[in-house]
User: What shape does this take?
Amino acid sequence: MLRATEAWHSPVTEAELAATCGLLDPAHSQTPEIIEQVAAVIDRRPSYRTITPDPGIWREAGVLSGTLTRTQGYGKEQRRRVLNDALLFATARKYGCAVLSRNVRDFDLLQQLDPSGKVMFYKIGAQQAPVVRQNLTRG
Assistant: This one.
């Protein structure tokens, strides 16, 4: 299905991939190979298919992530993660794209805040737990 559609990329996901390299143990024997593989994935992403969040998208993402942080009781680490998700969501919405993600929790909540955003969820393997829709409000 994905091979038949246009794929767009974000510097947000590039940074998330690059952060993986920084998290790896430099002393581990497989670290150089993993870094090489991650770099190859990033290099294969064509720059002409990259959409960079503009200042308006950053503001919108800030409001969305702040709202989720407040309503879901997120801590500092979760707040950073949901800001990245909100950047992806707001960018895709502005340009009429759908976000492809396994992250049902955050993107379902973002979609509840702004139903005009489109998200396609996927899971890997048949052993995954069932998808459960959460309410936006805490209770």
